[in-house]
Design goal:
Largest sheet: 2 strands, antiparallel
Helix content: 55-70%
Radius of gyration: 22 Å
Distance between the termini: 57 Å
Strand content: 5-15%
Strand order of the largest sheet: 1-2
Structural class: mainly alpha
Number of strands: 2
Order of helices and strands: EEHHHHHHH
């Protein structure tokens, strides 16, 4: 019985939308789970807002806690002016968190396990920082590349490092961190779960007895993945707040 931990990340076309030259434009399982994620978030928000009560119900409590959690994150990391970007950060946090949680359910698909998705989200944040920073501060925005208090003789080196950090390191690390954590956790889950099944099939009753420890580790890893699913959404949103702070206050 072969264990293929990579198969769960394969993008499968569900139906063809059209063609551009020789390229097929298809609606894939990744697209399906993106729509499902948005639908779940919309149901949560609409259910939380509709029929608001003085004593909140479950959906209203989750919606209000989500709002306050993200709002506090923005104020702590970007200041009161950072609330301008609340819709962006709130959407990023919920989209990543909900899609990560959906991906833990067996036989589903994890959107953030593909670097093209995480890179698109990271580039959205990076381009927002660049465009808003130039719009708000003009050429003063480029002061983010010139930290205050740096001796003149090493300033060129520091400026070069800051430029490379802004244009390359930050967007790349922002996207790879989420991608790498999700794909590594899901591979580990698949390996341990597959090992339990393989023992049971190949060794019978003795194999099922021997699979108790891998099964316990699988349950523990699942609980850890639930925590990681939330933490990765939090880290991604918090870093977005920190980067957006540079667009608001470009001086170091």
């Amino acid at each position: 019985m072969a264990i293929d931990p990579i198969h769960q990340f394969k993008i499968e076309p569900l139906f063809t939308i059209g063609h551009i030259g020789n390229h097929v434009i298809a609606f894939t399982n990744s697209s399906l789970y993106m729509f499902l994620t948005v639908a779940l978030i919309a149901a949560l928000m609409i259910g939380g807002v509709a029929g608001q009560r003085l004593v909140p119900g479950r959906l209203q409590s989750v919606a209000e806690l989500s709002y306050e959690f993200v709002a506090r994150m923005i104020r702590d990391n970007a200041g009161a002016e950072g609330m301008t970007f609340f819709p962006l950060v709130f959407s990023l946090f919920l989209f990543i968190c909900v899609s990560n949680l959906v991906g833990i359910v067996p036989y589903t698909f994890t959107i953030s396990s593909h670097v093209i998705v995480t890179a698109a989200l990271a580039l959205l944040v990076w381009s927002t920082v660049l465009i808003y920073g130039l719009y708000r501060n003009g050429l003063k925005f480029f002061m983010i590349f010139v930290p205050s208090g740096i001796p003149v003789y090493i300033l060129p080196v520091v400026v070069l490092i800051e430029v490379l950090s802004f244009f390359f390191v930050k967007p790349v690390s922002h996207s790879l961190r989420l991608f790498a954590n999700m794909i590594a956790g899901h591979i580990a889950l698949k390996v341990f779960a597959g090992f339990v099944a393989m023992l049971g099939v190949s060794l019978g009753a003795l194999g099922w007895i021997g699979g108790v420890l891998p099964l316990a580790l699988t349950v523990a890893l699942t609980a850890l993945e639930l925590l990681v699913a939330f933490l990765q959404a939090y880290v991604f949103a918090m870093l977005a707040c920190i980067y957006l702070r540079d667009a608001i206050h470009p001086g170091h």
